[in-house]
Amino acid sequence: MSDSSAPRLASGVSRRTVLGAAGLGAAALGGALAGAGKASAAVSTASASVTERRARAVVVGTGFGGGVTALRLAQAGVSTLVLERGRRWRTGPDATTFCRFANMDNRSAWLTDHAVVGGGTQTWEPYTGVLEPVVGNGMTAMVGAAVGGGSIMYHGMSLQPTKANFAKSIPVAAGLYDDLNRWAYPTVARMLGISTIPYDILASDPYKSSRLFQEVAPKAGLTPFKVPLPIDWSYARGELTGRYEPTYTTSDIAFGVNNGGKHSIDVTYLAQAETTGLVEVAPLHVVRDVAMDANRRWVLSVDRIDTSGTVQERIRITADAVFLNAGSPGTTRLLVKSRAKNLIPDLPDAIGTGWGNNGDRIWAWINPTGDAGTIQGGPACIGGTDSTSSIPLTVIHAGSPIQQSGVTALTVVGFGIVEGAGTWAYDAADDDAVLTWPAAAEAELQAQIATRMRAIATAGGGMMIDTNASAPSTWHALGGVPMGDAVDVTGRVLGHKGLYVLDGARIPGSTGACNPSLTIAALAEHSMQTIVRQDVGRVF
Predict the structure, then answer these.
(1) Alpha helices for 434-497 (secondary structure H)
(2) Strands annotated E in 325-452
(3) Helix locations, 192-262, DSSP H
(4) Burial of residue 329, with CB atoms counted within 10 A of its CB: 0-12 exposed, 13-18 middle, 19 or more buried
(5) Pick from 359, 324, 353, 340: nearest CA to 480
(6) Is 340 in a helix, a strand, or coil?
(7) CB-based burial of residue 388 (10 Å sphere; 0-12 exposed, 13-18 middle, 19+ buried)?
(8) Beta carbons of 307 and 284 less than 8 angstroms apart
(9) Which of 453, 374, 391, 480 is nearest to 31 (CA)?
């Protein structure tokens, strides 16, 4: 059907234009994937020789679990090697560190020759960019690749679940909640400098869309709230006064915040860990396999690559303790491979199970009646909860960095509690693990989220489009090495001393109708307190 003959909306804008705007708006949160596929394999030009290294403790990954782990090991006096496949990205006011959404380049994607979000047609030389889509059967998981992990490109929503919702999501760890609430969650909040958007910034012109959502939410049966965020708001003020180039105030933060002021893991936990002199962070180090040697020590096969993915050096690291914090897909894939190839004998059968998408769903609110402005500020600073829902859920508005002429498109994301029904299976042809996600596992939750989204459009005008309807995706991958069945509540892999999982892979499916970052970090804080007290000096 040609654009001229497409059905017209009341505004005179074609449905095709509306759908295009919906895709652009949602792409900043991963709702519109562009030719998502496997990242290209690293090209080997290294000699056959392998460099041998010895380490007391190795941390794999630098996100919320890895950052906490590295700092607490260092403070316990443990010399620690931290491996990260991505590169380090340094920012500052008016920096050009990250690409912008309107002109994406190879910094946006991990070792692919094309854009992985947004539907763009650009091609480029593969580069170690910040985002990788891990494509599975029925679900694509968006994964960060950078020093700082997913904290580099996330909006920063730092939500703590209620005690009841935590217990519904992670029943095996329900007994930890009082401790988490008393000191672990507050510790993370303090380390990340979490606060809500100040009144003067919310009242400014770029945040009209946030105020519109705040106004409409109660009419749609939601209780609005300000989202806690790890932001130094002076940078947003600097943008409003013209001191800095806009990035917060245009929501152009999908690939990282150029102006700085975002308290991501690299500039908080990891930076403090490095100041101890006991932590070495090694970027562009890709862990291929984890094994156990004849002396029951841990052996990691690692490729040191350059930014094109070419292998510069092969390294064999022998360690007394290994802490897997490569994110749910990364950690799960490593352990599924280790079990399938018998690199680690007697790994628990539950490895590769208990995976979930945190109930993620990204919607586009098109042409609301109220004034959403022409620019939508960020990060995602206003949300709403629904106390009447039979399945706990949360809805949050996130500004869109791209607007299409004639269409107003707001991004609205929903998530909630789901069962960890996803599984990972070894694929010998690719020497990798592949995810399978059954849509039925989240059908009831998504029906309730859809009802709430339609209520927003009814109360505020316009229409809602489910951008994940044909291509489900998540930025909140959880599970694959679940607590209780694969690791204990402290993250120790069952039956294997010195092997730990402290990232989202141990959380079975969802985090109590909240995005996971705060809970992953709080659980890591809690576990490291126990590990330092019980295992340091004994196990390693």
Answers:
(1) 443-460
(2) 353-356, 361-366, 382-385, 393-398, 409-416, 423-427, 432-436
(3) 199-202, 208-216, 234-240
(4) buried
(5) 353
(6) helix
(7) exposed
(8) yes
(9) 453
Grouping H, G, I as helix, E, B as strand and the rest as coil, residue 207 is: helix
Q: Distance (Å, rounded) from C-alpha 377 to C-alpha 420?
A: 34
Query: Which two tokens mark 220?
Result: 């749609």
| Least confident range of 117-126, 191-200, 261-270 | 117-126
Residue type, 113: D
At 25 the pLDDT is 54
Q: pTM for this one? A: 0.95
Report residue 54 as tokens.
């010895």
Amino acid sitting at position 409: A
Beta strand 473-474 with 140-144 is: parallel
Q: What is the pLDDT of residues 115-128, one digit of tens each?
A: 998 777 889 999 99
Predicted pLDDT of residue 311: 97
- Strand 382-385 vs strand 473-474: parallel, antiparallel, or unpaired? unpaired
DSSP code, position 180:
I
**Total number of residues shown for the chain:** 540
Give 342-350's long-range contacts (Cβ < 8 A, gap of 24+).
343/289, 343/290, 343/291, 343/292, 344/290, 344/291, 344/292, 344/496, 344/499, 345/292, 346/495, 346/496, 347/493, 347/495, 347/496, 348/485, 348/486, 348/493, 348/494, 348/495, 350/481, 350/482, 350/485, 350/486
Encoded amino acid at 359, one letter: G
The pLDDT assigned to 403 comes to: 81
DSSP letter at 181 equals I
Structure tokens given for 357: 């998408």
Residue 92: Cβ-neighbour burial (10 angstroms; 0-12, 13-18, 19+): exposed
User: Cα torsion at 327, 329, 332, 336 (round to 10°)?
Assistant: -150
**455 touches 221 (CB < 8 A):** yes
The set of residues, in sequence order, having a beta carbon less than 8 Å from that of 314 and lying 6+ positions away, is 46, 49, 50, 51, 301, 302, 303, 304
| Residue keyed to tokens 């490895």 | 351
End-to-end CA distance of the chain: 66
Locate 287 and state its tokens: 């862990």
The CA distances from residue 196 to 23, 199, 519, in Å, are 28, 9, 18
89-109 pLDDT tens trace: 999 999 999 999 888 999 999
Tokens of 480: 């694959």
Distances (CA, A) of 502 to 282, 495, 520: 19, 16, 8
pLDDT tier for residue 38 given thresholds of 50, 70 and 90: low
pLDDT mean across residues, the chain: 93
> Which secondary structure element, helix H or strand E, spans residue 26, and what is its range?
helix 15-27
How far apart are alpha carbons 425 and 435 in whole angstroms?
Answer: 7
